[in-house]
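Q: How would the C-alpha cells look for this protein?
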Amino acid sequence: MAYHVPALLDESIKGLNIRPDGVYVDATFGSGGHSREILKHLTTGRLIAFDIDEDAGANIIEDERFTFLNQNYRFLLNNLRYLGITEVDGIIADLGVSFHQFDEPSRGFAFRYDAELDMRMSRGMKTKASDLLATMTEEELAHIFTEYGELPLARKIARAIAVAREKAPLKTAEDLKKVTAHFVPPGHQNRFFAKLFQALRIAVNNELESLKELLLQSAEILKKGGRLVVITYHSLEDRLVKNFMKSGNFTGEVSRDFYGRPELIFRLVTKKAVTPGRAETETNKRARSAKLRVAEKIK
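A: Here is the predicted structure in C-alpha cell form.
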C-alpha cells in the first residue's frame, strides 16, 4: 500500500501556476507527492514543506531547494519568518488523513481495525481519542458529534458513552462500536462510523481551528498574484475554505467599503469546486470525496 496517493494532483499543480523562481509552501507534505511535482517546475525557486506527523520525515526529498519542517501548518507564519521568508508565491494544502495513517492500525484512525483509539496526527500530542471519551462531559461529546460528525442522534450517542464508561473505559475501536452500534441506521454502518470517528479525530487534532489559522496566515504571507490551493474531504473543511476564498472571512459575507464596493482579498480561480473524474476515482477510490478550490490574492 502506497504511503499516500495525492488526489487531483495535476489540477492542483496547475492551480498553483508555478513560477520557476518562486517560493512555495506544501502545508501537508505527507508522502511528498505534491512537493515532488512542484520541484519539477522550479529552477531557482524554493519549496518549504510542513507536516505534523513524524512519520512523514521518512519521505524527505534530498534537494537543496527543499526544506522540511516537522510542524503543524497552524504555525506557518512564524516558521517562514524564522527562515527569512516574508512572502510566498503559492500555498497548497491537501487536508485530511493520509493512506499511511488510515492503514496503520496502531494510529487508531480507522474503525475497521480493533486498535487503540489514538487518532493523533502527531505522537507528540498528549490527548488521544480514548482520553476524550473518558474525560469530556456528556454535553461536550454531544457537541463534537453534532458539529464535527453531523450526527442526528448526537445527544443519545453521548449519553450511551457516558453510561458505558462508568462500567469500563472505552479504549479501542471495538469498544466504541459496541456502545454505539444500535444507533446505526440500517444499511449505513460504514457511513455512521466514518462520521463518528471523524468527529473524534477533528476534536483530538483541533483540525478546524488549525485550518482557520492556516487560511488567515496564507492571506497575510501570499504576495499579490499568489495562489492558494486547498483540497478538502468533507463539508466542514470545504465550507470554511469556500467562504474564506470568497469573502476573506469564515461566514462568507462579503464586506463593502463606504461606496459599496466589495472588499476582497482573493479572486476565485475555480468558480466551483473541482472534483476527480471517473478515471481517477476508479484507480484511487479514496479520492471520491476530494474537492479542490483555488484562489489568487488580489491585494
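The chain has two domains: 9-99+207-297, 111-205.

The mean pLDDT is 95.

Upvote if useful.
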